[in-house]
Design brief:
Helix 2 packs across helix 5. The protein is α+β, with helices and mostly antiparallel strands. The longest helix is centred in the N-terminal third of the chain and has 16 residues. The chain is built from 7 helices and 4 strands, in the order ααβαβααββαα. It is globular and about 40 Å long.
């Protein structure tokens, strides 16, 4: 089962900033010790992708999504994920449509554990699947520095120098 989860999460993990990826792997490791697995559903979003997601949200046709200039997904410092009990993994992974039932207790453990590991849980603003990390930056500072891409590493040189 772990292999199946890794295969599903691999592309999302690869899109994250390396420092944030380590934090998400730590989160997944701590949760796994508690019998909880996490299926990542979103990581990096380009400016255009974030613009579309936000428009869909505003139209009432999609999940919560920040405006393009207010999203940590643009900087590879945010994920959306679905926590579930290891015992339910066959049910979750075989589904075409996943359920975002935040009344299930694993969501509280997911949010609390992310916070304990120094990340911000979206539960504080009604976006339970969301976890983000901003290393000493506000979103306005990140926007001013520029988006992370393979061609433009300016923001990361300034932050981690």
């Amino acid at each position: 089962m772990a292999r199946k989860i890794y295969e599903r999460n691999g592309p999302h993990l690869a899109e994250l900033h390396p420092s944030f990826r380590l934090r998400i792997l730590a989160l997944m490791g701590v949760l796994a010790q508690k019998g909880i697995l996490v299926l990542l559903t979103r990581s990096y979003a380009s400016r255009e992708a974030q613009r579309r997601l936000h428009a869909t949200f505003l139209a009432g046709d999609g999940p919560r999504a920040a405006p393009e200039n207010r999203s940590w997904h643009r900087y590879r410092l945010a994920i959306d994920g679905i926590p579930f009990r290891d015992a339910d993994s066959d049910l979750v992974l075989d589904r075409e449509e996943l359920t975002w039932d935040v009344e299930v207790p694993v969501w509280e453990v997911f949010a609390k554990t992310a916070e304990e590991l120094g990340m911000r849980s979206g539960s504080s603003f009604g976006d339970w699947p969301h976890v983000e990390w901003h290393p000493g930056l506000t979103i306005d500072q990140a926007e001013a520095l520029g988006s992370y891409s393979l061609d433009n590493l300016g923001i990361w040189r300034r932050i981690f120098a």
